[in-house]
Every structure is written in C-alpha cells, then in structure tokens.
Design a protein that fits this description.
This protein is of the alpha+beta class. The chain has one domain. Helix content is 26%, strand content 11%. It contains 5 helices and 5 strands, in the order H-E-E-H-H-H-H-E-E-E. The strands form 2 sheets. A 3-stranded antiparallel β-sheet has the order 1-5-2. A hairpin with a 6-residue loop joins strand 3 and strand 4. The longest helix has 15 residues. The termini are far apart. The N terminus is likely disordered.
C-alpha cells in the first residue's frame, strides 16, 4: 500500500473541484479492497493534497466509496474506461450513480448476448453537467426504454470519501478540465 504523497503546504487543505482531503482511513481502504475483491498487487493512496485527485497521471484512478456502491469494480472494465475516454471525463468528475448506468448497460448487453458498443450506449444514455460543482452524470435518454428500472440514488458528499489506485495499468485519465 502506497501512502506517500507530495509535501503538504498551507493550501493543501483547500477544496479542488469540490474535493477536500478524504475522510477515509487506510484501514477502511484495505477493507473496501477486501469487500469488493480487488486484485492483489494494487497500490492505494490517500493524498493529503486534493489537487492529486484531479490530475491526469498514467495509472492513477480515483475511486469514491459511492461509486463502488453503484457498480464500479476494480479492475475497471475496458468498456467503462472507453466511456471515460470517449466522453473525455476524468474519473474524479463522474458522479458515483453514473456507474449504475455504465455497469447496468454492460449487464443488459451480456444478458441479451449483444456486444456493447459506444454507439449503442449513446442510444440509451446522455451525459449532463452537474449543477453547482464541476462534474458530469449519465441519465437515460428521453423517449427511450430505460435500462435501469429503479432510479439511482444521489450520494451526498461523495467527494469526501475517496482514494486513489496508483497503478491501474494501461489507463491515463483525460485532463480534469476536458470538455465534452
């Protein structure tokens, strides 16, 4: 478990894109890794500087506890990573309930024997900007059959309970300032 982080300065405790210092402990991160069956060999970090959360650095993937509750799994599926890349969304800016739309879509495709494609995903879902703070969320496209039959639950303060996976091979997040 990698707990190293850059030196802390007076400005490190300020919020960046709504992120403050995570309220999680490393023991809680280890328990989440066990509960959600993360593969061995992953390294985690609880950065003291919230600016690290929104940076684009190869192998870094921010995980909110709320996202795990909405279907995010580590390792992240190739299709889910391609959604982030296609929509140019840094993982720190995707609201946790959006993972229900991504994973629900993948499950429905698998149940139906259909190969998931970006075009098919876009037929069922649209992306919207979060009101108030930087971020994005997926929702069902109006006028189309909803894949999720139960509405997703919004998670309050999700930007306070997160950690970083620091060695997710083959992934470089889009810049947090990327636009759609």
């Amino acid at each position: 478990m990698d707990e190293s982080s850059p030196p802390v300065t007076e400005t490190d405790s300020s919020e960046v894109d709504g992120f403050g210092v995570s309220t999680l402990t490393m023991d809680e991160v280890v328990e989440l890794a066990r509960k959600f069956n993360f593969p061995s060999g992953l390294r985690f970090s609880l950065p003291k500087d919230p600016r690290r959360v929104t940076k684009s650095k190869e192998g870094f993937f921010v995980v909110s506890v709320g996202a795990l509750g909405h279907g995010l799994r580590i390792p992240v599926s190739t299709f889910a990573l391609s959604i982030l890349e296609t929509f140019q969304i840094h993982p720190s800016l995707l609201q946790p309930q959006s993972w229900s739309f991504i994973m629900g879509f993948l499950v429905r495709c698998q149940e139906s024997g259909v190969t998931p494609t970006m075009g098919l995903f876009k037929q069922f879902h649209v992306i919207s900007s979060s009101p108030g703070k930087p971020g994005y969320f997926f929702k069902s496209r109006p006028g189309v059959i909803k894949i999720l039959t139960k509405p997703t639950q919004s998670i309050k303060n999700w930007r306070k309970r997160y950690f970083l996976v620091t060695n997710l091979e083959g992934f470089t997040p889009p810049p947090s300032g990327a636009t759609l």
